[in-house]
Amino acid sequence: MTVQFTIDGLEVKAKEGEHLLDVARRHGIDIPSLCHHEAVEPIGACRVCLVEVRSGQKTTITTSCNFLVEDGIEVHTDTAEVRKHRAMNLELLLARAPKSDVVRKLASASGVTRTRFEPLAYEPLPNCILCELCVRTCDMLGHHALTTVGRGDKKRIGLPFNKPSDNCVGCASCLSVCPTQCISVKDTPTQRAIWGQKHDFILCKVCGAPVITKKHRDFAISEKGLPEDYYDTCEKCKQSAASKRFASVVW
Amino acid sequence: MSRTPKLDKKLISSILQQHKAGDASALVNVLHDLQAHLRYLPQEALEMAADHLGVSYAQMYGVATFYEGFHFKPRGEHVVTICMGTACHVRGAPRLLEQAERDLNVESGGTTKDLMFSLEQVNCVGACALGPLAIVDGTYKGSMTPAKLSNLLKKMHKKGKK
Amino acid sequence: MQITCLQCVEAACAKVCPAGALVRNEETGAIEVLANRCVGCGLCEAACPFGHMHFDTQLRLAVKCDLCGGTPTCAAFCPHDALEIR
Ligand code: SF4
Ligand code: SF4
Ligand code: FES
């Protein structure tokens, strides 16, 4: 079923079950966000994507990433109330991630350059804002290595019992999606160090360059039913092998 | 004699069998049951429970650490809890805690090396009229004094050693 | 010889992508990276049999030829009109 409503005065149509933030972005209306990623379900953790939703007599300030669109609502993305609450949330986030460029930029766009709150940053993820994008992504990928640990001001992102996890394949997707890029990944030509363990890379059969980690390959091959030698060579050597094949056909 | 509860995989299995396999909604109940029998939640038990319920081990651990009531290190045979609620506090609960810490040689939240006692504090058990209050293995002991507590601990210690 | 993306009918990159971030643009026929869906796992890079998937280590995203949205700049720039888009 289609629903119809307005965002900042613009008439928009969307499918029932869609989330407000996605619909707004599709219509070119930007709402800042930190914990949203299209590949995973939204959980409304960062509280940056606030909007004002008017429905009949009721006006609420709510997160747009996990707000299901409704017929006839009137959405405002940039009211004084929205700005005020977003600024407060960003000030709180600044206490968690004082060194994150992304958070600092968003904060200063909201007029927040310093925080009155006690720093809550923790090692070894000093700029973690607990958005759980890493956890959600790792789960979506089927690895289930990460989790939140504890709660309240002691909440952390980590591994069960803080021990290296058999489930982690070293794909580093958790770092890729992390808004503050706070997860430590160290690559050498042969190994990747992440989440307290070292993963061996497959080395290209031709040139010896790292391809992906062995564990990641094994997972992908069994998951997708790929041939065993699928990741034996790197993309550059695949490119040149393919070129030679083409050339021999053309000339 | 070591008091470390030996990991009994058969026992863990039998606890798990009482819950429907694949029923993730039983997660917290399973954690409670496991802890009731094992006194803490060892890694292996969480792994087996996760398998049984069809949730990930990481999620199992995440949920367990959300609650203050679950423990991940072996705990004492006896649990001594001091109520630190306002009423108990003004009636001298801090002195009870200090006494227990000294007698048992552990800090609040800790467990003695011989695994005989775990010492804890809570923020109020709602029995303010009885305060100051010590809860020993689930039994409420009202109008507690440091001397009485000390005696009680000594008696329990002697009994346990036999 | 350089080979650019063949926009394969059965694209290996799209097949291995666990996030559904590689999809065909029905208008241009190109396989495109939906940057907002890509989780940067890197599986597609070495999956392409022609070595045409790339992983941007700065952005931590997959990048590839999307035919510049239907009007490839490479074809327009070729001084000898050797590149033609059909
Ligand atoms: S590197 Fe490990 S923890 Fe991170 S997403 Fe991949 S499997 Fe999960
Ligand atoms: S590590 Fe990054 S992705 Fe994970 S919760 Fe923290 S900020 Fe979010
Ligand atoms: S993007 Fe909506 S709460 Fe983070």
Can you characterise this structure?
The complex is a heterotrimer of chains A (251), B (162) and C (86). Chain A contains 7 helices and 11 strands. Chain A has 251 residues and is an alpha+beta fold. Chain A has a 5-stranded mixed β-sheet with strand order 2-1-5-3-4, with helices on one face. A 4-stranded antiparallel β-sheet of chain A has the order 8-9-10-11. The mean pLDDT of chain A is 95. Chain B has 162 residues and is α+β, with helices and mostly antiparallel strands. Chain B folds into 2 domains: 9-66, Arc Repressor Mutant, subunit A (Orthogonal Bundle); 78-161, 3-Layer(aba) Sandwich (Glutaredoxin), CATH 3.40.30.10. Chain B is built from 7 helices and 4 strands. In chain B, α3 (43-53) crosses α4 (57-66). The model of chain B has no long low-confidence stretch (mean pLDDT 92). Chain C has a single domain (12-77), classed as 2-Layer Sandwich (Alpha-Beta Plaits). In chain C, β1 and β2 (31-33) form a beta hairpin. The longest helix of chain C has 5 residues, at 12-16. Chain C has a two-stranded antiparallel ribbon with strand order 1-2. In chain C, 35% of the residues are buried. Chain C is α+β, with helices and mostly antiparallel strands and 86 residues long. At the A-C interface, α5, α6 and α7 of A face loops of C. The complex binds iron/sulfur cluster (SF4) (2 copies) and FE2/S2 (inorganic) cluster. The site of one iron/sulfur cluster has 14 residues of chain A, from α4.
